[in-house]
Hints:
Helices cover 70% and strands 0% of the residues.
Amino acid sequence: MSPGADEGVTAGPTGWSDDRSWRGLDLGTRWIATLGFGGLCVIALMTTWDGLARYLMWPRVSGHADFVDVVLAIVIATCFPAGLLHRNNITIRFLGSIGGARVGGVLEIFGALVTLGFFALLSWQVWQFVIELKTSGRTSGTIEMALWPWWWSTASLLSLSVPVQAFVLWRCITAAWGGRALPPADD
């Protein structure tokens, strides 16, 4: 980074915040996660209203369970890209600390590669499920809404996790190749 450029920018929790590509991904993934939080708030409000309506013997929210079933999957999928970018996934680093920086770097690369493979396979399977829902014309049980558009959204969000994790893998490789320690993950 050139002197004077982006003054005031300090290394963030991942140590990558001085990089424009990381900042752009961070902004995008946090925006997506915020939308997911909004969906979670809608679910909470609907659930509260439905419970209150039952208690007061008012009409219940028709299709509440149908809606929650599909929106909750979307809400969960919105959190994966940001979590992966910030390396908030579960890791065990004691082997890397025993073997030194080189072994630690190789293990970080291996972990990032396995995580990338997992999300690639998960995304592929969810896309297969979307195709099955579309071709079979499956609908929800109560209000009979088509399920495939909701799961298409979930699959799209999960698919965003793959390039984000590929970015993390690339960063792990370049850190290990350059002999630099990988910045600590977010706590």
